[in-house]
Model the fold of this input.
Amino acid sequence: MKVSLFVTCIVDQLFPKVGECTVNVLRRAGCEVEFDDRQTCCGQPAFNSGYRKEAREFAERFIEIFEQSDAEAIVSPSGSCTAMVKHFHELFPDDPAWRERSEKIAAKTYELGTFLVDVLGVEISGSAFDGRVGFHDACHGLRDLGIKKQPRELLQGIDKIELVELPDSEVCCGFGGTFSVKYPEISTQMVDRKIENIEAADLRAIVSCDSSCLMQIGGRLSRNGSKVKAMHLAEILDSHE
Amino acid sequence: MQAQTANNFDKNARAALADPVLQGALQNLASTFGTRRKAAIATVPDWEASRETARSIKSEVLGKLDKYLGAFADNAEANGAKIHWAKDAKEACSIVTGLVKERGAQMVVKSKSMVTEEIHLNHALEAEGVEPVETDLGEWIIQLAEETPSHIVVPAIHKTKRQIAELFAEKVGTDKDANVDELTATARRILRQKFAEATVGISGVNFGVAETGSILILENEGNVRLTTSLPKTHIAVMGIEKLLPKFTDLGVFLELLPRSGTGQRLTAYQSIITGTKKHPDHEGPEELHIVLVDNGRSKMLAHPVTRQSLACIRCGACLNACPVYQSVGGHAYGAVYPGPIGAVITPQLQGLAKAKQLPYASSLCGACREVCPVKIDIPELLLHLRAEITEGTSNGAVTDEKVARRRGESIAFRLYSSMWKTPGRYRFFQKLARTSQRLVARDGKIGKVSGLIASAAPPLGAWTAWRDAPAVAPESFREKWERKLKNGGKAE
Done:
C-alpha cells in the first residue's frame, strides 16, 4: 500500500530518528512510503491556544498538500497530531466545501500503530528489544482516536520484550502543549506521579505513540538522571537488540 | 492568605503545590473516588446508553427551557408552592432574605447547595442579621473555618482529620485529640438543636420536574430531610437549568448522579417534594418557596457550544478525574465552582475578564469528558473560551467585558503561523534555532536555562526549570529523507 508520511514538526525538528524508524517500519510492513517536504505543522498549537484563524490556515495548507497525493493513507507517528487532523472540520463551521475536504483527508489519516494493526493487519516480525517496558496512553490517541490495544499488540510481538501494565497509564503526563510552560509546576507534578510508577516498575523504557508526551516524560527522567529511556513506538519496533 | 480569585490561578496553584498538608489531603482523592466510581458504574447494564439518554433529556430541556420553566412554575404553584424569579445573584439574595425577615427568623438551617454558594447567600443573610447554619457536616466544617468549599460534592476534602479536630476544639470546645466519632457526635448534637429551633429551612435542588412541579434533593446525612420538613417554611433555591420534563426522567439521573459523584449506587436519602403539606399524609413544610435563579445562565444558553455547560448535574466526577484538580485542589480556582467544570462555568458566570486564566488551567487531557455522566465536552468548551479570549469576541454569550489581548502570545502565534506555513521559512527557522541553541545545548539536550536567555525565551525558561529539553536535531527528518531515506536508506 502506498502511504504518505505526515512526520509532524516535532519529530522533524527534535526527534528525526522517530521519523526514520517510522519509515523503516512502514517499509517492513510492505508499504511504499512517500514524503512531501512542503508539509510543516498541523496547527494544533494554534488551535489549542484559541488562535482559530491561524489554525484554519494550517489546516487548509495541510489539506491542499495531502490532497495532491495518490497515496491510500496518510500515516503519522503521533496520536495527537492525527487527532488534530480529525478536528479540522470544526474549523470550518460555515464552509461546507472545506468541511467536506477536511473530512475526506481525516478519513484516510492514521496514527502509526492503528494503521499497522487495524488497517494493514500485519505482524511486524524481526523486532527485538531486551527489557521491561511500560506503555503510556497518550491522551488524544486514547480519548480521541480510541488507541489502546493496538500499540500493546505490536509491543507483544517484539522478541525478548516484557510489557508491564503501569498503574494510571491513562493519566495525562502533564504536557498539554502550552500548558507545560504556562503552568510548569503543575505540569511537573503531573509527570512526577507518572515517573513514580515508571521507576517503581523497574523499566528499561517507557513507550508511547506521541513524541510530545515523550519529550515531557523523557525530559523529566533526564533531569532526574534516570536510566529509563523514553522511546517512541516506532523506535522500539525498529529495534533489533 | 491572599485573596484567591480566579485571576490568580497561577499563584494559588503554586501555593497549593507547596502546601504539604493540602497535598496529603488530596492524595487519595483520585484513587478513592475513581475506584468507587468504577465499581458503581459497573453495576449499570449499559452505562453509555444511560449517558446518552441523560444528555438527550438535558438537550431537550435546554432547547425549550422557557416552555419547561413555565410548566414547572404552573405545576409547582398548583401544588401550593410559591415561585420567585431572580435574574441575578443580588435579586436572588434579596428575595430569600426578604422571605426570611418577613417571617421574623433570626436563624435559618441550610442544607448543602452550590447555587446558594454561587450567589453568596450566607453573606447576604448575615448582613441582614440572620444567622445561617450549614447542616451538611462538610459545609458546617467549612462554615466554622470561615472558608469556602473546595469541591462540589465534598466541600471539606482539602481538610485533614487533624485539622478538623483542631478546628472543633477551637470553635465548639471538643478535645483536640477527639476522634471522628466524637467529632460527628458533637456536630450532630449541636445541629439537632438548631433544627429544633429553626422556623425557616433553605435548600438547593438537584432536579426539578416540569410535569409535576416536584423537586428532588439527594443527600447522605438526613439533614436535607430535616431542613425541608421540620421548619414551617422551606425555601428552595435552584438554577433555571435544573429541570427535567417528566417524573420518569428522574430514573436515569438517579442512576448516573450518585455513581458518578460519590461512587454510590444511590444516596442514603432522596427527598421528592411536591408542593406544601397536604392531607392526608401531613408531610412537608407549610410553606414552600422556590427561587429560580438565572444569574448568567440564559447567556450560556444563547450559544450552541456554551449551552452544554448547563447540562451539568454537579456530580463532581470531573474534579475527581482531573489531574490538575488532583494537584492543586479546589481553592486554587478562586471561585465557587472548581475543577474542569468550574474552569468553564466560572468565566461564563463572572465574565472572562475576571477569570481569564481558568480556560488555560487544563492540559486538555479529556479525562473530564470521559467521566461526565451527561457527556459535556469540557475540552471543547475550554477551547471555545480560549478562542473567545484571543479573538476578543464574546458573541454576546459569555461576557460583556473585553479581555485584554495577550500581546506577546498573539505576536508569537502570528510569527509561528507565518514562518511555518512556508517551507522555506520553516527551514530557515530550523537553521536559526540550530545556530542559536549552541549557547545552551549540550550533548543533544538543553539543561536548565536561566538569566537573560530565559527572559528572552520564557517558554524555554519555564520548560527547562524542571525538565531537560531536546535540542533541535543536527539533521532534521526532511534532510535525512533527502540524503538517504527516499532512496530506501542508501545515501545519495
User: Anything to note?
Assistant: The mean pLDDT of chain B is 93.
